[in-house]
Amino acid sequence: MKFLVVGAGAVGGYFGGRLAENEQDVTFLVREKRNRQLAETGLIIKSVHGDFSFQPKTILSGDQGAYDVILLSTKAYQIDQALSDIEPYVQDNKVIIPMLNGMDHIHKLKERFSAHQVLGGLCFIESDLSPEGFIIQTSQTHRFVFGEWDGSMPERVRDVEHAFDGSKSDAKASRSIVQDMWEKYLFIAAMSGVTTLFRQPIGPIRKVHESREFLARLFKELESVMRQAYAPLSGHITEKHMQTIDQISYTMKSSMQRDMEKHGNVEADHLHGYLYSMASETGVSVPNLQAVYSNLKLYEKSRESSF
Ligand SMILES: NC(=O)C1=CN([C@@H]2O[C@H](COP(=O)(O)OP(=O)(O)OC[C@H]3O[C@@H](n4cnc5c(N)ncnc54)[C@H](OP(=O)(O)O)[C@@H]3O)[C@@H](O)[C@H]2O)C=CC1
Ligand SMILES: CC(C)(CO)C(=O)C(=O)O
Question: InterPro entries, from UniProt (predicted)?
Answer without folding.
Answer: 6-PGluconate_DH-like_C_sf, 6PGD_dom2, ApbA, KPA_reductase, KPR-Related, KPR_N, NAD(P)-bd_dom_sf
